[in-house]
Amino acid sequence: MKKKKIIFLTNALFIKTGLSRNLKAILKEIYPLDKYEIVHYCSGVSENDHNLDKYPWKTLGSIPSNPADIQKIQSDPHLSRMATYGGYRVEQIVKDEKPDILWCSDDIWAFPPDKFCDTKWAKHLNLISHVTIDSVPILPEAIQQAKNSNFYSWASFGEKEIKKVFDKENFSSRYNLGTVNGAVDGECYKPISKLQKSELRKKFGIEKDCTLFFYLGRNQLRKKYDSILKAFKSHKLQNPKSKSKLLFHCSWTEGWPLTRIIESLEIDPEDILTTYVCNKCKEFKISRYVGEQKDCECCGNKKCVDSSSVGNGVTDEDMCKIYGVADACISVFTSGGFEFCNAESMMCGLPLATVSYSCGSEYTACDSVFEIRHIESGECQTGFVKAEPNINDIVKFIKKIETMSEKDENEIKIKSIKWAKERYDSKVIAAKWMEIFDSLPEVDYTDFSFDDEDRSNPNFEVNLNLTGEDFIRSLYLGYLGAEYPDEAGMRHWMQRIEQGEDHSSIASLFRNISQQNIEKQEASKGRDIEDLLPKNGKKNVLFVIKESLGDTIISLSLLEGVRKQYPKHNIIVCTDPKYFEVFVGCDFVDKMIPFYPQLEQELFVIGAGSEKNIADVFIMPTVSTQKHLNYLSNNNPEL
Predict the structure, then answer these.
(1) 163 to each of 71, 178, 430, how far by Cα in Å?
(2) With the C-alpha atoms ordered 406, 408, 410, 416, is the resulting torsion angle positive or negative?
(3) Secondary-structure percent of the chain, ordered helix, strand, coil, rounded to 5
(4) Bridge partners for 342 per DSSP
């Protein structure tokens, strides 16, 4: 029986993120069953990254290694973003792998509709969007994805809010809409013994009678480290004899300036701990923060110990120990898609305090979780509703944990573990995904063509009277056929408008992009370039002269010199077919082929980073600039 092939598009497993932890936990359950053919398409990783070879399933990187592609990506911030999230190569990956299911898991902006759910191939296969929804109002891109793919939110908050939009529009989708939470490895995340906790505290110099409050989270603006510190300071003022401390598991070099906040609040720095990780031996330690690039006490290497980060984190086993050292978890944020800290701390038996907005509302439904009330506020630029946590509630939670009896602590522990395991354990989540995978049909690619109808229209008549976002959106839709432009692209063009760039010049740029898209589409419909080349076993010289009539006539004088330098090569002229007649009868020309845009990229032509090439020598006499290379393969100074 044929196995269904599934491409999982999300972070690489060796990156320490919630996205990678989720897939790692899922594959731990699914892979041993040998039920599916698995391909992991890793966002944010080069296709030749050596770490991709670690895994028993096929693993691919989203960032191309071909120098021609790299040059193209580096010159365009939009393409760079697409390459990072997987959009740049996704169609080619689908063409090569021909999956039954493409499972995409990330934030909403990682999968713009024009690259994913709106494409012809996405409508042919089973597209699953597993997306974090953390704020209202819901972005149009999210609604578009929910209408055109099997859409699953990481928390019930997202599903409920999208259903509200559907109900308001009286919309009924043919795709699935639901919630599948993040997966936590229940065999790993569980309480440690009292003895182990005591030994770890002794190892790291944490007093037995210290009440330790823990928070794990990327040091981002939406993670309210400042609120925790303000509440901690308030508690210390109210309770001078308190021996409580905070433990922040995050990078101190990004986001909130934690050291400065601690100083401004006049908090004793000995009361704020962090997790340090050696990037050589991977050992961790817990101590007060004293800067980065410290020497490792375990392996002896110099300047290799930093605060924990996405690129230098701990194993799941060590993470469980760090939870185990703590007495409770304070998780406050302005918005959140799932928040692994909440689920993991509950499965490790810690009392949890969190806000009740976005995904937090799911956790506060458990009666063992302490709710931190909040007020709603608007976010500048986006207009998203965000939660500002009540600092007094955090203070109350700290005091409550400090004075809690062992009996009450055990009751919370038992309730939290049971509640969390029923919802987030990787066995539960993997079973849900397998039920979804099994319900979707197999996909037959026999008669399917990937050629998508190009929606670019360089003849679009622009309305220069529109302003701001309306103007930019009209250009995306009119010239490029993109109804839902990506956020980064919108910001880029809005900045250019704000800097005073003329509407006409911006429209002209869109027109050029549209024309290039049409040319690329036409080129892709033609024969393979390799099919146009001579088949006589000789090496090739590609002589590129796109236009004009005058340039093509002048270039004839160069061809004799090219023949003298490369007498045993085929000399192939690449030009617009309407100029072919200029070269007819020229003794120094062996072949003429139509001009395609990619043929003016020398790295592509000579096959840099690839086993195949179009030619061994590239000559483009009309250009000698930094924009287009024109010298790597031609070492004859006399030409």
Answers:
(1) 43, 9, 24
(2) negative
(3) 40, 20, 40
(4) none
